[in-house]
Design a protein that fits this description.
Elements (H helix, E strand, L loop, with lengths): L7 H9 L5 H19 L2 E4 L1 H16 L10 E5 L26 H9 L2 E6 L33 H8 L5 E5 L6 H7 L2 E4 L20 E5 L2 H11 L29 E5 L9 H17 L2 E5 L7 H16 L17 H12 L2 H13 L4 H23 L5 E5 L15 H5 L6 H5 L4 E8 L5 E8 L4 H15 L12
Helix pairs in contact: 2-3, 5-6, 7-15, 9-11, 9-12
Length: 487
């Protein structure tokens, strides 16, 4: 039986109809990881024994007649999400030996539903990056071209899914860290409305922006996973958002009732011509279906990266202050307390973490520094109001996910500003706490994936996913081969 690149829906049918067992499916992914991940370096740890044990338990539940959901489905999780009894490094030397004492809420819910955790995925250190090159444990490679980045910071999760090492994956999205690698790796990457999914057990980076996101092969798969992990949580006061009633994402939609905004600011200078051409083709497909496409303006988009960067760095400085090597984490020691702090943090943090801590500390300082943070929050509120106004005119926004396809490993390592701009089309939705999803829409002439982004109103998550699935259905994108599989 060919199990290559199956969607969760397809795997669900095989399991429920007893055409395959969870143990067989889990072994399929474990063998692929063992054989091929040396090319990709998508994962930091593979939990062979526990994955097989949980798969056997899932098979027992299936034998008793349980069906549906994520029961028996293997998945991979970004290594900044706590998993009890397993290392959770956040991609940092600071937490290289840290073993989580409890499960994140999303992990607890997936365990209860019978999903099978296979491995922990690589990431930019503390999720600080857009290329998965900042990991203390080495970079991840793009499955479609091993010399290219997979995007970040959830690059390990996206690359693992694209390489067919799991049925779905979890990541975190602060300024675009699920949607960006999803676009570069040719998978679906979804950021929920802020507060829809509990952040309890996510290693905090920028708390007013962080969200746990989902990577899958289809928007329908994402909706299925949402049904398991979303909802209020007593351990996370921000996880209080109750979404509008779920819709059947695979339903046929009435295109003549759909109004989609096409924001000019997302199609400006810097947008690669092949990305623009693919988006133009999608626009024509939607028009042919009867959808209304309206040109709209979001002039504050140009301030998104600046406001995001200030807020992000300030909150990074605050959250990463807890990692001092005294209570837990990397310990170097010193002759006095100050020297101990300097050694522990100096040796434990990588360059990007140090950069953001230092700049963030300045942004939170009294005087001129503090004014930057206050102004950034004002701009954030203005961006949110701008989105709210636009959504009185249209139902959704459709944009590029990233200005270009994947770029070469090492090309931007010494140019942090260029890397920050990778998220220029993603940060506005994050700042406004809106649901957004990247779906694969085409390929470049070099066979690299291109993504398109759908943004919706807060709480309209299932409507956004319904439109995403409908667009996936009409595109019916052909797959590309992975050359390293023949090695």
């Amino acid at each position: 039986m060919d199990l290559h690149n199956l969607t969760l829906v397809q795997v669900r049918d095989l399991l429920d109809n007893q055409q395959i067992t969870s143990r067989q499916l889990t072994d399929y992914y474990l063998k692929r990881l063992e054989k091929y991940d040396s090319y990709i370096h998508s994962c930091l740890f593979i939990d062979y024994a526990e994955a097989r044990r949980v798969a056997d338990l899932a098979d027992e539940r299936l034998a008793r007649g349980e069906r549906g959901g994520v029961l028996g489905i293997p998945y991979i999780v970004k290594d900044n999400i706590l998993t009890k009894g397993l290392k959770t490094t956040a991609g940092s030397k600071m937490l290289a030996d840290y073993v989580a004492p409890y499960d994140a809420t999303v992990i607890s819910r997936l365990k209860q539903a019978g999903a099978v955790l296979v491995a922990k995925a690589n990431l930019d250190e503390f999720a600080l990056g857009s290329s998965t090159e900042n990991s203390a444990f080495g970079p991840t490679h793009n499955p479609y071209n091993l010399s290219m980045v997979p995007g970040g910071s959830s690059g390990g999760s996206a690359a693992a899914l694209a390489a067919d090492f799991c049925t779905f994956a979890l990541g975190s999205d602060t300024g675009g860290s699920v949607r960006h690698p999803a676009s570069l790796c040719g998978v679906v990457g979804y950021r929920p409305s802020y507060g829809a999914i509990s952040r309890h057990g996510l290693v905090a980076m920028a708390s007013s922006l962080d969200a746990i996101g989902i990577l899958a092969h289809s928007a329908t798969d994402v909706a299925t996973i949402m049904g398991v992990i979303a909802g209020p949580d007593k351990y996370d006061a921000t996880a209080s958002l109750v979404l509008e009633a779920p819709t059947r994402v695979s339903q046929t939609i009435n295109w003549t009732n759909i109004k989609i905004g096409w924001p000019a600011e997302y199609f400006g200078p810097g947008l690669d011509s092949e990305v623009a051409d693919n988006l133009s083709q999608i626009k024509n497909l939607l028009l042919d279906k009867g959808a209304t496409i309206l040109p709209v303006n979001l002039p504050l988009t140009s301030y998104g990266v600046s406001a995001y960067t200030v807020i992000n760095m300030a909150e990074v400085s605050s959250n990463l202050a807890r990692f001092d090597g005294l209570r837990y984490g990397h310990q170097t020691g010193g002759s006095n307390l100050l020297e101990t702090y300097l050694n522990n943090r100096g040796n434990g943090f990588g360059a990007e973490a140090k950069r953001r801590i230092m700049l963030g500390t300045y942004f939170l300082s009294a005087g001129e520094g503090g004014s930057y943070y206050k102004k950034a929050q004002i701009v954030r509120a203005m961006i949110s109001r701008e989105f709210k106004e636009i959504f009185t005119q249209v139902d959704y926004l459709f944009t590029p996910t990233t200005p270009t396809a994947a770029f070469p490993l090492g090309a931007k390592v010494n140019d942090p500003l260029s890397l920050y701009l990778e998220d220029s089309l993603l940060t506005p939705a994050s700042l406004a706490h809106l649901p957004a999803v990247s779906i694969p829409i085409g390929w470049t002439s070099a066979n690299l994936p291109i993504g398109g982004q759908i943004i919706g109103k807060r709480r309209d998550d299932y409507k956004v996913l319904t439109l995403a699935q409908a667009i996936q259905d009409i595109i019916d994108l052909p797959s590309q081969s992975l050359t390293w599989e023949t090695n």
